[in-house]
Design goal:
Elements (H helix, E strand, L loop, with lengths): L4 H15 L3 H5 L16 E6 L4 H10 L4 E7 L3 H13 L5 E3 L2 H5 L6 E4 L3 H13 L3 E4 L7 H14 L3 E3 L7 H12 L5 E9 L20 H5 L31 H12 L7 E7 L12 E7 L6 E6 L22 E7 L2 E6 L4 E6 L4 E6 L4 H11 L9 H19 L2 E3 L1 H7 L3 H16 L7 E3 L3 E2 L10 H5 L17
């Protein structure tokens, strides 16, 4: 069954009634934020949007901050919205609930918003919030495409707003110490920064037609800026990660954390000069269209290359029959390796323990200790000082964009054999990664299946565009009205 056209049109009309007010109009009354910060005597008043999964975790994390107070919740799924409101009520916290984010932004009693929606909403909500005078904590990836990330950076600067990216490893003492060690030259130059995301991703199944959407979910608003498409998978929530109109695959899901650390360790404060991808969605035929097996190579002229590896299938075909056990490389399944002249630095997921090994594999340094990313954001808001942020949105933008350019290469690719991909990889670290990917595929019974050999994408880091019109076109997209980015004169 699918949602009837009458139901959809009815919801669209209701949404249009709100949207007809226009984002600038609906936000014009928002004046509850102190321009230069807040006062310790008044906690930072928080509104959270997107309450399923990660949003629920962030709701609890910000509720635990002594200098913050949850005052508003927003979600297009009424069941999730009411469940989270009830959870807060049991903690003695009364919150105002909203089905439309623009209504939340019009509230004078909100100083900052926490955005944990699907990826395709992140940037637009962040820009709207900054223009409404709110500070912003936006989950990773901060954008769905390259241009959106830069739009957030400009909105935060234009409105003098505090904007933190949800890459929490930036607040980890262990990770920060390891990066400082790498950047100090103690092990010589960093020859390659390698990120890995070997995370089990089973098939999401395959449906025969558009799926029923409960009346408790406003699907029009859920889609927001994405093109209108009937739901063509069995589960609306979470599995949006595996569709390129709303998600960015595991490269832009778990992988953005490791991409951020790799770029940080390599010392790059811009996009690469070239991006290349090899891989695909292999091992099953389902309703997802993002790679579950992939190697991307980001090349910087005269600088350290970044290699990223995604694996969603287990160690072997035998493993697929039971609980999946994943591959590991350099002792990690999800993590970052900084390959240096004099050794390597390993930064596993968890972000509370890192280690440096010399060229003979002996441990020479170990760093421990995590951090509180949410507390860092609250501190910056109270002080009205973006320099306090451990993960300012520009860092989130650049790391997200590094993922996006890899996906652009994939989107413009062609079917090829794994042997072709191995020969096409110009970077020796990338070639070795493709060869290991080939062995991983064979271990899962996949020997002759074609993969997608991505186009080598030329990137103009200065203007975050490309001289290749096909590539440049995929660095942005047109939003579905009325969910569009505001325009500002130069």
């Amino acid at each position: 069954m699918s949602m009837s056209r009458r139901d959809f049109v009815g919801r669209s009309a209701a949404s249009a009634a709100v949207g007809a007010l226009g984002v600038p109009t609906i936000l014009a009354g928002a004046s509850g934020v102190h321009p230069q910060g807040t006062s310790k005597e008044q906690p930072v008043r928080i509104g959270v949007v997107g309450l399923n999964g990660r949003g629920g975790s962030l709701l609890q994390a910000f509720h635990a901050q002594p200098d913050a107070r949850i005052v508003g919740l927003c979600d297009v799924d009424q069941n999730i919205l009411q469940r989270r409101a009830s959870e807060m009520k049991t903690k003695g916290v009364q919150v105002r609930t909203h089905g439309d984010f623009r209504e939340m932004l019009a509230s004078d009693d909100i100083d900052a918003v926490v955005i944990a929606t699907p990826n395709h909403w992140h940037a637009l909500m962040a820009v709207w919030a900054c223009d409404a005078g709110k500070h912003v904590y936006v989950e990773k990836p901060v954008s769905h495409n390259v241009a959106e990330g830069r739009a957030i950076v400009e909105a935060a600067e234009r409105n003098n707003r505090i904007c933190q990216a949800g890459t929490q490893s930036r607040s980890s003492n262990a990770v920060r110490s390891a990066i400082e060690f790498a950047r100090s030259g103690a092990f010589g130059d960093v020859l390659c920064a390698r990120g890995m995301c070997y995370k089990p991703r089973r098939s999401i199944g395959k449906v025969n037609g558009s799926q029923f959407i409960p009346s408790t979910i406003d699907y029009h608003r859920w889609l927001g800026p994405a093109p209108y498409e009937p739901l063509m998978r069995s589960r609306l929530h979470y599995d949006w990660h595996w569709h390129d109109q709303t998600g960015n695959g595991d490269l832009g899901n778990q992988g953005i954390h490791q991409m951020d650390i790799a770029r940080w360790g390599a010392g790059h404060d811009r996009l690469p000069d070239r991006a290349w991808s090899a891989g695909g969605r292999i091992g099953y035929d389902d309703d997802g269209n993002t790679p579950n097996t992939q190697v991307i190579v980001l090349e910087y002229d005269g600088g350290t290359p970044i290699i990223f590896e995604v694996r969603g299938l287990p160690r072997s075909l035998e493993q697929q029959k039971g609980k999946w056990s994943m591959d590991s490389h350099h002792g990690m399944g999800i993590g970052v390796v900084l390959h240096c002249e004099g050794g390597e630095i390993r930064i596993p997921t968890g972000y509370s323990r890192t280690v440096a090994l010399d060229a003979d594999g002996r441990e020479v340094h170990r760093w421990e200790g995590g951090g509180n990313h949410q507390a860092n954001f609250i501190e910056a808001v109270i002080a009205g000082d973006p320099d306090i942020l451990n993960a300012p949105v520009v860092e989130g933008h650049l790391s997200s964009a590094c993922c996006h350019v890899g996906m652009v290469s994939h989107a413009l690719g062609r079917p090829a054999t794994i042997e072709e991909a191995s020969h096409a990889a110009s970077n020796p670290f990338g070639r070795e990664s493709v060869q290991r990917m080939s062995r991983h595929m064979e271990a899962n019974g996949i020997k002759d299946a074609p993969i997608i050999l991505g186009r080598t994408c030329a990137v103009n880091a200065a203007n975050e565009g490309s001289s290749d019109p096909d590539v440049h076109a995929l660095f942005s997209r047109t939003c579905r009205e009325p969910f569009s980015f505001p325009t500002h004169g130069s």
